[in-house]
Amino acid sequence: SDEDLFDSLAKSATSCSMRRYSSQNVANLTWAFAVMRHRDEEYLDCLSEVVLRRCDTFEPQALSTLGISMVRLSLAPSPPLAAVLTAASHRFSESALDVQALANVGWAAGKARHSEDGFLDRLHEATWTRRQQLSVQD
Fold it and tell me: From CA 89, how far away is CA 12, in angstroms rounded?
């Protein structure tokens, strides 16, 4: 069953191996948990530890995916989510953070009511500079 599969994934990830995962692998696994609405407290504790230690080194796309995944897993507000959103906001100027990733970070920040000092200014500046790339989604 899906439940058994995600219990196995959580057990594997929390047996200290998640600390060795790439940022994108951490984000992808967390996204899978969020999509399936599978909350495993041990996994979330391990995720929080990994995020707080390494999020400043995570790729922009991974930060974006983690932001929305953590909100969907009801980790908002929390210090790990705040760390992810802050780290992402310091990377807004990088071209690797596309407009969809920027929108994801903005959505997650809104849901989490995240307003760390300077966050909204950085989000505004990044959105303004990419305004030609933005489009309305149905």
Answer: 31
